Input
Amino acid sequence: MRQLLALSLACLLFVAACGSTAGPSQQQQIQLAVAATISSMPRPTAPPPPTPVPTFTPVPLAGIFCEYQFCIGHPSDMAFYDVTATQSPQTPSTYGQGILAAFKAGTGPFIQMMWQEAPGVSDPSFMIDLIIQAYGDTRTGSIQPELVGSLNVFYTAITPTPGAASALPFGTAAAWTCGGRAFAWKVYAGQQELADSLLTEALSRFRCESR
Output
């Protein structure tokens, strides 16, 4: 388009030069001005291509952990290990209290769970602060109640500790009671939807026994 306008402008100048010595006529001057204006107009910018939005990929919780008289679901390619026994082999986790963790190398989720005896406690939300403050996580919302099966669960979205957030920037923490014990659970994940679904699926397979 610009080349055609430039060629038209050149032709008009040539015709004007070959005409009378008095210069281009008024009509030719108008045509020259219009051609020059159109030629100098900027070309429209093409819109940028759409940015693809990552889709949520659920992780099936085919695995189940059963020890210390409770069971809970987890991804089949991740296994819980006893954090308490790792830190102090002489005092491993017990029925009364303990800490577990599971992780998958690379971009897989990280899950942690803790519990302690809490007879008579009906609001276990203090366990959420306990499990996130111990490692430097922060709450990004208020604690919300939700009924998952027969469990009254308190949960909140969290921001993982800076060292973990570089790879797994989203998280969820939750707490509930069962059989005279208070339980806390948290996960770091690559997507908030994944973190929330892991909690729901894990608790859908939870059960406990009391002494």
Summary: The chain has two domains: 2-40, 63-208. The chain has six helices and eleven strands. The helical segments are 2-18, 26-40, 83-87, 126-133, 162-165, 192-204.
